[in-house]
TrEMBL record:
Positions of the UniProt region annotated as Disordered: 118-169
UniProt keyword terms in alphabetical order: Signal
Source organism of this protein record: Micavibrio aeruginosavorus
Origin: domain of life: Bacteria
Species classification: Bacteria, Pseudomonadati, Bdellovibrionota, Bdellovibrionia, Bdellovibrionales
Ranges of compositional bias, category Basic and acidic residues: 141-153
Residues spanning the signal sequence: 1-21
Annotated protein name in UniProt: Tetratricopeptide repeat family protein
Amino acid sequence: MIRSLFLTTALISLMGTSALAQPAVSVRSGQHETHTRIVFEGAAPAGYQVQQTAPGTITVTLPGQGTVDASAVKSDDIIKGVSAAGQTVTLSVKEGSDFRHFLVGNKIVVDVFREGGAPAQSSDAPKSAKPVADAPVSAKPDVEKTAEQKIDHGQSSQEPDVPAAPAPSVEKTAIEKALPDFDPHVITVSSTESFGLAAFEDDGVLWIVTDRASASVPPQLAGPRAGVFPPFERMDLGNGATAYYMKIPQGVPHDIRAEGGGLQWRVVIPTSKKEIKEVAASRQFASGQLIRGGTMFWPMSGITKIIDLVHPVSGDTMKVVTVDASTAFTGYAMDFVDFSTVHAVVGAVITPKVDDLEVTSSAQGLNVTRPDGLALSRDKDVNRRLMRDDVQEANPVSENAAVGTLKKIFDFERWMMGGLTALTENERILKSTLSTKEGDARIQDLLTLAKMSVANDRGQEALGYLTIAEDEMPQLIDNLEYLALRGAAYGLSGKYEPSWVDLSNPGLLPFGELAYWKAYTLAWLEDWDQAYKEMPKDIQMLSSYPKPLLEKMGLKLAEVALRGGDGPLASKIITLLERDRSTLKPWTTAGLDYLHGEQRRQAQDIEGAHKLWEPLLENKDRLYRARAGLALTLLELQAGTIDRDKAIDRLEGLRYAWRGDELEAQINYMLGKLYLEQDRYVKGFSILRDAATMALPDSNIGKEITGFMGAAYQDLIVQDKDLSPLDAATIYEEFKELTPPGESGNVVIQRLAERLVEADLLGRAASLLQHQVDYRLQGLEKARVAKRLAGIYLLDKNPRPAMTALDTAQGIYSADAGLSDVQKKEYTREIGLLRARALSKINRTEEAIMLLNGFDPDPDVNALRADIAWQAGLWDDAAEALHDLIMDESIDVSRPLTLKQADLILNLAVALNLSGNRVEVANMRTTYEAAMNQTTRGKLFDVITRPRKVSTLSDRETIAGIVAEVDLFSHFLESYRASGDSESSTVAPAAVVTPAASQ
C-alpha cells in the first residue's frame, strides 16, 4: 500500500522538459538554362543514395528520414514526374539525361541536365571538409574563358585578331591539386530593410561594402568547401557604412558575379563565364578640348551613396559607389590618366590619382571628372569587352562564415513607432499605399508592419504580414534577419516549435539577443533545463525592451531562472517588471506575486511564501490561481497544517481551473497520489492516467508520472498483502498497460494469479497464466508455469486444457539438454501424475491406470490409483490401493489416529463394503474399531462395518454420501494453490522472457 507522499519530489516535478518534433524532408525544384535542380531540404546526408534504376528513372533513397513532401516539384521538359513512397523518391526524367548529385550542409542537390548540358564533373561531387549550411549550388557547364585584357594607363585596349598563344603549363598549387573543378560558393548579405551595396575584387581580395547600419548581419558564405575560405574582416566606414573584406584563397578562380538588390544580395565565386553586359561608360568632352575637358559617365540608376574607403594596405582612398540593384556595376578594372576603376561586380569603385578628382552622382548616373576635365581617349579608340558571371541560385547560410562580434539583431526602440497608441494610425498609413507599390518597396512596407507588430506584442498580425511578404518574395526564407523576425513572431503567437526552428538557424548563433527568445520558447515547450542553459545571464539588453514585450517575456524568463535555481538572475528580471507595477496588466501582477512566493519558498521562508500565495487563491486570473493553489497545497501538506481530505478537496477544485498544459498534469498528478494514499486505487490510477496524457510527450513531468504509476501498480499487486484478490484483479484489468515488460511483468502477473487462486477464482488465474505460457515465457520457466497451470486447471475441474499445458511442459523438459537424468525423471513423474488425473476426469480410466503402472509405487501414486479406481467404481482395485496407502502410513492402533489416517481406514472400509468382501470388512472392524471410536469418524466406521443383517437404508445412503465426497488425490492438487509446486528445489529454472509481448 502506498503510504508516503514525496513532497520534495512533487515540488521539483514542476520543472518539465519536452522534445521537439522532427521536421519532414521537403523537395523543391528549379529550372535553369542547362539543367533542372532538385533540392532535398532537411535530409541528413548520412547514407543517402542517388542512382539510375532504369532508363528515364532516377531513384533517391533517404534512409532514416521522416516523411517526404515532394509536392513542390514541378514538371518541365526534363522532369516528367515525381513520386515519394516512404524514404524513396522516384524521378521520371527524359531518357538519356545526364545527372549529378552532391551535398550542401544538410541538403542533397540533384541536377538533371538537358541535352548538351552535361555536368562538368562526375556525380560524386567532392565532400566538404566541414558540414556547411544548406545552400543549393547550381552547376553550369564550363564555358571557354575570355582572355584577361591588359590595361595601358588611359589608353584603349583591343583584343588581337589572331588567336593568343597558349599559356605555358604552370605547376598547380597544393590547394589547386586538392580542389579540382572548384564548385560555386555563395556569399549573401541580407536585411529586412533595403540597403545599398558595392562588391569588388582588388588584388585577390573580395570587398563588400554596405551603406546602412540596418544590414547588421555580416556576409554569409555557403558552399561545399566553405572551410577553405577565411572569415571576413570588418571595417566601419562611418555614417552607418561598413566594409567586409576577405582574401580569396589561392587556387580559387576570381570569376565573380552578383545578383539581387534591396533586401538581399548574392555574390557567387567562382562561376562559369559568358558574354556579360556591365553599365557601359561614355566619354563626354567639352567643345574644342582635344586633350582634357573629358568626363566619364556611367548611366547607372539607383546610386545610394558614395563612400570613402581608405585601403588598409596601400593607404589609397577609394570612392566606393553603392547601388540598390545588382544590375548596376562597372565591371572589369580600367586605368586612366587621372583615376582607375577596380573590378566591381556591384556598383563602382574609383581610385583617384589626383587630388581634385570629382566623383558625383545624379538621377541619371555616375560622373567622374576634374575642374579642367579628364585626359581621356576618344570613344573611337576604345574597344573593350567585359565579362560578367552567369546567374545561379544560392542560399546565404554558412556555418563557417565569419560572424564578427555582433549581438543585437532587433531594433525595437525604432520599430515601436510611437507604441500602442500610434499603432493603428501607423498601420493605416502603411497599408494605404501597399496596393500602389511593387517589388522591394512593397516587401519593405510589409516587413515594417511586421516589425512594428512584433515590437508591440502583436505576434499574430506580424505573422500575417510576413506570410504575405514571403509569398511574394520566397527568397526571404534565406534572409537571416527575416528568420529572426519570423521566429520572434511565432513565439509571441504561441507557435513555439516553429519559433524554435527559426531561431535555431546556425547563421543566427552570433546574435546573443536571440538567446532570450530561445529561452522563452523552450520554457513554453516545458524544456526548462535547456531554457536556463540558453538564457543569457546579462539582462542589460532585455531591460531596453518595450514594455509590451518585457511584460510578455519577463515572467517566463524569471521563472526559467527560478527553476534553474538562479535566484539573483530571477530577482533582476522581476525588478525590471516591478518598476512599472502600477501600469501592468492584472495577470502580470498575479504572476509577479506567484514568483515572489516561489522566491520565498526557495529561501526557506515558508511563512512568507504562504502570505503571498494565499491571496492568489481568490484571484481572478485562473492560471495563477491554479498555480498558487497547487504550490500552497504541497507546502501545507509538507508542514502538516492540512490533512489529506482537505488537500483532495482543494485539488479537485483546481482540476478544471486551468486546462491544457503542464500545470493541469501536475495538479492531477498530485491528486492521483493522494487518492492512492487513501486506498482509492481505481480513482487514483484513473486520474494519474489522465495526468500522463496531459503532459507533453517525452517531458520530464510525463516521464515522472508514468514512472510513479508503474512503481505504485507493481508495489500494490506484488507487495501489498492487505490488497484483496478482487481489488488486485480489478486494478489489473483496468490498468493492465502498467504491467512492465520482461521478468518484472511476469512477477506481477504470477503474483496476481496467486491472489486469484487464494480467492478460488481459478478460471481467471488460469487465464493469466495461460497468456504467460503462450506469449511471455520461454525455457524452463515456461515449463514450470505450464505445470502449475495444469494443476490449477485440474483444481477447476477443467482437464482438457490441463493436458495441453502438460504437453507444453513435457516438450520443454524432454528437449532441455541441461537437465540431469534425475531431474528429467522427477519432472516426468510429476507430469505423469497430473496427466493420469486429467485422463481419469475425461473417462479414460484404463489409460490413466496404465500410465500409473509405469511409476514406482509411492504414496502419491497409490493415492491417485485409489482415486481413479474409486471414481470408476472399481472397488477391488480401490481397496487394494487404499490398503497400500494405509501401509505407507505405518499405523499403530495403540496410538491415537490422525484425521488423515482415520479417513483412509474409513475409505478402505467403504471400498471393501462395496466390493462385497464382508470378511475383510469384519477384520477391519475388529482391528480398528477401538481406535476409530476415538476419532470423529467412529460413528461412520461403525455404520459401514456392522454386519449386513443389521444394515438399513440409511446405511446405504451414508455410504453413497461418502463415495461422492471422497477425493483421494486432492492433497496433491492443493499444492498447486501455493506459489510453488512440487518441482525440486535443486532446479533453478531460467526465465527467458519476450519483452515485446505484453499482458
